[in-house]
Amino acid sequence: MRLMFPPLSFPPSRHKGGALQMRERRTAQVMMIFGIVLALVELYVVIANLWQLS
To answer: Which residues cross the membrane (predicted)?
Structure first.
């Protein structure tokens, strides 16, 4: 006797709703903007310290 099993998928695929996808996209955009602002502040601090040393 041979049993047939459907192929397993890990993680299980779920259909995401439109609202959830929009929230994830907005969160990703906010995180990218925050990263850019953080990098600019860090660059400003480094340049200010180098300028004070000279």
So the answer is: 30-51
Residue 13, Cβ neighbours under 10 Å: how many? 7
Model confidence, pTM: 0.60
> In tens digits, what is the pLDDT along the chain, a chain of 54 residues?
556 665 655 665 566 678 889 999 999 999 999 999 999 999 999 999 999 987
Q: Is residue 12 part of a domain?
A: no
CA pair distance 25, 36, nearest whole angstrom:
17
Helices assigned H by DSSP within 1-54? 18-53
Strands of 1-54 (E only): list them.
none
